[in-house]
Amino acid sequence: MYLNQLRNVQPYVRLGLANIQKRCYEKAILQTQKLQSQEVNTNKACSASVGLSDKDPLMNEIFPATRVMPMVLTNKEPIVLSFDDVPGPRALKYISNFRHYLSEIGTQLTVGVLTIALNMSTYLNTKKPLKNLSALFDEYGPVVRFVSPVGGDIVLINHPEHIQKVYTMEGEYPIRSTLDSLEKYRSEHRSLVYGGLYSVQGEEWNRQRAVVLAPLNNSISHHISGINDVCENFTTKIYNIRNYQDEISKDLYKELHKWAFDCMGLVLFSKRFTMLDTELVYSQCDMSWLYHSLEKATDAIIKCESGLHFWKLFPTPAWNSLVKYCDSLDNLIGKHVIEAEQALSFQASKDANTDFNKNCVINAMLMGEDKMNAEDISTIIMDMLLIGVNTITSSMSFLLYYIAKYQRAQRILYDEIDKVGANLSINDLSKITELTPYLQACIKESLRLVPPIPVLTRILPKNITIDRYNIPRGTLIIMSTQDASLKEGNYDDASVFYPERWLKGDAKEYHAFASIPFGFGARKCLGQNIAETMMSLLTLRIIQKYKLEYHYGDVGSTRSFISRPNKALKVRFVDRL
Predict the structure, then answer these.
(1) 3-class secondary structure, 111
(2) CB–CB of 545/191 below 8 Å?
(3) Global confidence as pTM
(4) Can you tell me the mean pLDDT for 529-552?
């Protein structure tokens, strides 16, 4: 019965709605009378030509009246969604209710632990590998929110345009997340108010950067011949330690780590370290113990930064190791700084006209207008060693791997190096880059595939809209640059080592922020010139002497603070005839 009544009411409802619509549009129709009258005159003229009148019913079918849509907005503003609408794992949103009970654990969970927590049930049930950041973006889109249970919320992005937008709004003094473990160590154990270049923020960061930038660039130019000698020493050592399969019987990554340490010794201390010739570590040898402390401190920092920050509550084994070896690093570097300071004072008192070696980074910081004390200089040098040696080692490892794996690219590279070998002047950096475009493309392509630091961070100084979501100031933005550089939408055959992509005419079509291994803006890596020079010189020497081969399974990268090969590099170094 109710259905029959609804059927009887339905025609009247439709009629009532029609009358309401007519009254709503009446004002708009009056405003468009001029336009309609012009169309009516045109219609009459057309109907007269075919013998139809206005009263003819066919007239309305052939020439229907113009519909007026007065509510259409021509300049419609995009809809901005709230921060709560940003998609992300729900599990952590529920846990966030208890964040005030866990405030002492840390300011944030690292990306790895967040991912493990999200996928633990999947792993236990199916025994499948845990999801990585790429899977999170595939599931939730280009903007993912983590509601951290122990600190401020985190937003992950991987789209080049979103990354660019964050950089354009970073302000005069960009703020990025720090290494909490290193910051705690310096504040509690070294009584330092400010950290090094990597962790310091604001005006103090700007001051340190201004003091260091020019000496670094001058030092790499001044010591390029010495760096070339270290590269020659590395190729000779390869010849001496190869096994019957022409492979490095020891860990190739560690040998490259020693090479990078020796090169950085020249750049920072203006001293020739000889770790490539040293097989055993001696605590009585400053150079040997400095290298050993650097290795152990790096491992300890990675362990402390990965996972829950329990070392903030009580001393963990990783924290104890960090304190021990960072103390050792700081003391040994401080010893070099004090020696340099005493030498400068002695020479100045002996001869006021003495021309000091300003190409030494330490000397330049001691003699600069904004003179720094020994503790500040030691802290800056320590950061440069921790970050510089490890990132350059990572980058060089993957470059040799890709050259060995992709023989076609290696042949083109060898032909280029062989052609310009006689005309190549080691002391002219610009000439090296100009004469070896394919080598520079290989370096750029390797850094695209595996950037040494896979994620970059910024803390927003003000509100920003990303993909229609309003992200409030103070939010930690994690930019997954490695995911961006491996996305097929950004590069064709994104997972393939193809240096020619940077030499083609259409290379400019790639988004500038799809691959930024050295970062961007004011806080861009200060060591880019150093890294590219060292990688260029070592690759030149290796390719001139050896043909590289790789016959094993694919090598991936770890997703730790600094990327490393996830398995041993068994590259063959075959003598060229």
Answers:
(1) helix
(2) no
(3) 0.79
(4) 94
